Amino acid sequence: MKIYENIEMKEYSHMKVGGIAKELIFIEDKKELKEVLNTRKNIFLLGNGTNTLLHDGKLDISFISLKNFKKIAIEEKHEDYDLVRVEAGLDFDELIEFMEENNYTGLENIAGVPGSVGGLVNMNGGAYGTEIFDCIEEVEVCKNDGEITKLNKYQLDFKYRNTEIKQNKWIVISVLLKFKKGFDKECVADKRNQRKNKHPLEYPNLGSTFKNPEGTFAAQLISDAGLKEYRVGNAMVSAKHPNFIINLGDAKFSDIISIIEHVKKVVFEKFNTKLETEIIILKTEEE
Fold it and tell me: Could you give the residue numbers annotated as active site?
């Protein structure tokens, strides 16, 4: 493993917000996880930083990164499907490329979603009616005591944007995916194009800030509440996609939190609907 102490986390966040961390540990062998878990108290697994808002003060946290875990291997070939082992640190877009190369289908709707494979598995990420758990057969996790085990999909609780893995703060090491043949290239191009046109990708952001309440869309509620371009400091509700909060330049953690709380308050007052954050908010102990 490689350990960096007193490291600025701003550059490891898609929102470009983050303070000085106690340490950042790059794991090189999964067996190292047990040592880290047994010798540190305050640990946080950092994926690609695409959905985690980091406090910009001092972070007394040992961040763990599995970005070096990027292998893909076809484990079993069958007449109707293949089983593919994918490590957690692989960028999801690279998995889509692998699917195209091997004519696999199943996750095209999620193309263009930023993040690592492990990050999407952790929260059962998805888009346009598809979730990554739709193709999962098994997940290899490291539990809190350092035990590494493989769990069948049906041994795990998972639902919309949440899993037992996330709740228990387990670490995803790899996932076994079941792919049928028939890659949909047009679908991937369409979804990537939609993201480019509808999402404010030109600014630092953390993707969808709030989960969609049942039967409606968070973005629509925020828009109907008149909150597009609501701004605190250099953080703002995007006019392009109001479920995105964007960093206009040197936004502070407190600016983004103020927007989140204000949006929740106004949407509840106007529509009697409670918005729940989809992003992870990492505060300091003082808070």
Answer: 161, 208, 278
Q: Are 248 and 203 in contact (CB under 8 A)?
A: yes
* Residue 286 pLDDT exceeds 60: no
φ, ψ of residue 7 to 5 degrees: the values are -105, 140
User: What gap in Å lies between CA 283 and CA 261, rounded to an integer?
Assistant: 15
In the prediction, which pLDDT does 283 show? Answer: 84
Q: What is the DSSP letter of 104?
A: E
Q: Write down the domain spans for the chain.
A: 2-65, 72-186, 200-282
Q: For the domain made up of 72-186, give the CATH fold.
A: 3.30.465
Are 113 and 125 a contacting pair, CB within 8 Å? yes
**Please, are residues 181 and 104 in contact by the beta-carbon 8 Å criterion?**
yes
pLDDT digits (tens, 9 = 90+) for 148-194: 999 999 999 999 889 999 999 999 999 999 999 999 999 999 999 99
CB-CB contact of 143 with 162 (8 Å): no
Q: 200-282: which CATH architecture?
A: Alpha-Beta Complex (3.90)
CATH topology of domain 2-65: 3.30.43
What is the number of H-type helices and E-type strands within the chain? Answer: 7, 19
User: Which of 145, 91, 149, 152 has its CA nearest to residue 116?
Assistant: 91
* DSSP 8-class letter at 211: P
Predicted TM-score (pTM) of the model is: 0.88
Give the pLDDT score at 164: 96
DSSP assignment string, 53-99: EE-SS-EEEEEEE-TT---EEEEEE-SS-EEEEEETTSBHHHHHHHH
Q: Nearest Cα to 72, choosing from 89, 55, 58, 57?
A: 89
pLDDT at 285: 57
- Find the DSSP H helices in the chain: 32-39, 92-101, 117-123, 164-168, 185-198, 218-224, 253-271
Q: What would the pLDDT profile of 45-88 be if each residue is shown by its tens digit?
A: 998 888 899 999 999 999 999 999 999 999 999 999 999 999 99
